[in-house]
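Troubleshooting log. The previous structure file for this entry was overwritten by mistake, so regenerating from the original sequence record. Sequence copied from the archived sheet and checked twice against the printout by T.R.
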Amino acid sequence: MRLHIMGAMLFCSCALAQTPLPSPEVAKFIQFNQPLIALTHVRVIDGTGAPAQEDRTLLLRDGRIAAITGPERAPPPGAQVIDLTGRSVIPGLVGMHNHLMYTHSINRDDEGKTPPPGVFVTEIAFSAPRLYLAAGVTTMRTTGSVEPYTDVNIRRQIDEFRIPGPHLDVTGPYLDGRDSFFPQMAVMTETDHVRKTVDFWAGEGATSFKAYMKISRTVLAAAVDQAHKHGMKVTGHLCAVDYRQAAALGIDNLEHGPVFTDTEFVADRRADECPAGGALAASWERREIASPEVQALIAELVARKVAITSTLPVFESFVPTRPLLSRRQMALMAPESLRSHLEARSLAATASGYAARQEALLKKEMAFELAFVRAGGLLLAGPDPTGNGGVLPGFGDQREVQLLVEAGFTPLEAIRIATLNGAQFMGRADSIGSIAVGKHADLVVLKGDPSRRIADIENVEIVFKDGYGYDPVRLNASVRGMVGIR
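Regenerated output below.
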């Protein structure tokens, strides 16, 4: 009997050893870490699009949702009870166009142009994970990387509980073509090269890939084929290859929506070339979403099961008549990053007709996304914290949900797009993306009711990731003045 007991003790010790405890660096941001937690009197918005459930009790046990009951059932003995009267709980956000990088500053010469070798972005692997988690993002795809080794190592440290942050799907290095505007991107002009690159980064820990604007059709086809051999998906922010061509090649996902990226309607475009100037935008300015050609594009994307990622915040940041960043966001930014963004906004405001044109294009993209979903398409959500620096990690994810409502989705639909849809695309809907018994306790506690007032998505009070309750105020305070440089 004693030997049996000793064996059981050894087994338990091994099991515990495989589950790391929070490091001191993580523990200082955790408010609740009990193995049994009862969230009482809370409004449940489950992420499926179903109506909110009032006055529920969520029981969290060992990092999972153990039960969802009404107030008539008392929490079990020993549970840490948290009264959430007046609060709502939604699933953790699943960010599908997120980065651990940021447009640090926009380098221009005396003529206001960007000199060679082009635009540089800065890895912010310290501040970004904290900002995402503080905003309620519990899972995210990096959707292109300029420092893939950094991203892989950050994921490992998060998984080992050494630093705070969301669960990461690490996208490998950007797969771009010749003469990329970003010297930090990989130049892929040969099919053999791109296949070897996909193989290499699949072995190094990347879990998805992203093609970029100047990649050719033949190279993109090879990248998609090779990634699929590894069971991985490919997304793309394309230009030289249009949406219809990419869909025919088997791409899984297209970023940003077509109004700012799809070149198929550009007149006299050349094969495998990204049109210069404003030709792309002009081609969509002349297209109505209800037109036969746009409806045919939507039908083909839906038929081929190509998901679209909505990234409305990055495009909103280019509309100089839209609201500026909040004081809270400005305080988090490095001075140079803030100066650069405000300068970009100021220059845009002086261009004749620019604001009205950008606003019209933003509205058209919104209309496309609504029509795409109504036709049966899978829409994902992410902020893309690049552009002119006006989108911050985490804050941009919250703004994306608000802009989806502005686009015509109901608040419940917008929350589903930002949670369950991403989980479904990643093949993880059985464990994350909605609130259901047995799923991971990845939850966001909000003051108010975002099912009626979507602005309440910003009122984050607690973020649960795998059952640990994090303090968003402390997480944000830890990166004050660092966004853009660290």
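The chain has a mean pLDDT of 93. Archived copy saved in two places this time.
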